[in-house]
Write a structure and sequence with these properties.
Layout: H1 35-38, E1 41-44, E2 48-54, H2 56-60, E3 85-91, E4 93-102, H3 103-108, H4 115-139, E5 150-152, H5 176-192, E6 198-200, H6 203-209, H7 213-220, E7 237-238, E8 241-244, E9 249-251, E10 261-263, E11 269-272, E12 286-302, E13 307-320, E14 326-330
Parallel strand pairs: 1-12, 5-14, 6-8
Antiparallel strand pairs: 2-3, 4-13, 6-11, 7-8, 9-10, 11-14, 12-13
């Protein structure tokens, strides 16, 4: 008996009807941020408060330059000091965003979409991206630094300039780039008496640093690897400093225009002393004062439109608390 001429022969491509995979979806998400590593989170109870700052000058002042100022003569009392302090304050703000899922969306959506979870992740990412932008803006603002704790490179002094003499042969060391870093270290030591333990090298700058001939020449004459891991590695060590290589991007065009992602962190390098767990009698570059420790999630029902709304919010403020602890190299590359 002849087959149905309208029928299809069974093949590997016809025996299955395409359905969405239940364990795979693709989503673009911001990554490569460093905000809470350069300005660590300090949990606080109230949305506004003050904190004490001991007087810097008094803590470094001595009576005599020969180290004999604290000498106690026989039958004499020790000299009494009265260290002073000032106060500073913080005031947090609430940042958040919301999304919704309608009853019809929920009833018809494929399980792999995980609508509630996926949308919550999206709005949390947006809040954290804003956080990164705020910290990056403050950290890279030259106005936040004293004159002795910043420099702007230009022309032949920029690390990717064709005229940059990376291999220094004038007796000032093998690497002119390293000389810039030594200048920054000395400035922080002079202003805060802290050796910087953190260096921020944005990805665009890191691509130049790893190819610096002067650094490569220095490495030839040292027993220790100056550039470890994948040459220059986020979280690794670089001349005694923990390396932070921000690579996070954001949309630079208006909604409806073609996608164009730009780097949140520009072409500047920051050296800083960062206390990862700031507490009593500590010192650090900046802090993120955060109420409650993390995200607050809430939901509510809108019967009129048959939607359930979900909100993710965080209550915090970011503050530069000691500019003495950092040094800004602006326009490290062109």
């Amino acid at each position: 008996m002849a087959g149905n001429p309208q029928g299809l022969n069974a093949t590997v491509n016809t025996v299955h009807s395409a359905t969405p995979l239940s364990d795979l979806t693709l989503a673009y998400r911001p990554s490569g941020g460093i905000a809470d590593r350069i300005w660590p989170v300090k949990p606080v109870q109230h949305e506004s408060d003050i904190y004490y700052k001991w007087n810097k000058g008094q803590r470094f002042r001595v009576v005599r330059a020969d180290g004999q100022g604290t000498l106690i003569a026989d039958k004499s009392p020790a000299k009494v000091r009265n260290f002073g302090f000032t106060t500073d304050s913080y005031k947090t703000q609430r940042y958040g965003a919301a999304e919704s899922v309608s009853d019809r969306e929920r009833a018809n959506a494929d399980a792999a979409l995980s609508l509630e979870q996926s949308k919550l992740i999206g709005i949390q990412d947006e809040v954290m991206l804003d956080y990164e932008i705020r910290v990056a803006t403050a950290v890279q603002a030259a106005a936040n630094y004293a004159a002795a704790n910043k420099v702007t490179l230009a022309g032949a002094n920029q690390w990717n300039s064709a005229s940059f003499t990376s291999l220094n042969t004038t007796g000032a060391g093998h690497s002119a780039l390293y000389t810039n870093l030594l200048t920054a270290k000395q400035a922080i030591l002079t202003s805060a008496n802290r050796m910087p333990n953190t260096i921020v090298i944005p990805f665009q700058v890191a691509m130049v640093v790893v190819n610096d001939p002067g650094l490569a020449d220095m490495e030839k004459f040292t027993l220790n690897r100056l550039l470890a891991g994948d040459v220059l590695q986020d979280g690794g060590m670089f001349f005694g400093m923990r390396v932070l290589i921000p690579s996070i991007t954001f949309q630079t065009t208006a909604e409806g225009e073609a996608d164009s992602l730009g780097f949140v962190w520009g072409k500047n390098v920051i050296l800083a002393y960062v206390d990862p767990a700031p507490g009593l009698n500590s010192l650090t570059f900046g802090l993120t004062f955060r109420v409650g420790g993390g995200f607050g999630i809430r939901s509510w029902r809108e019967e009129r439109t048959m939607e359930t709304f979900y909100e993710a919010s965080i209550n915090q403020t970011e503050k530069l608390v000691s500019a003495d602890c950092a040094y800004l190299i602006s326009a490290a590359i062109a």
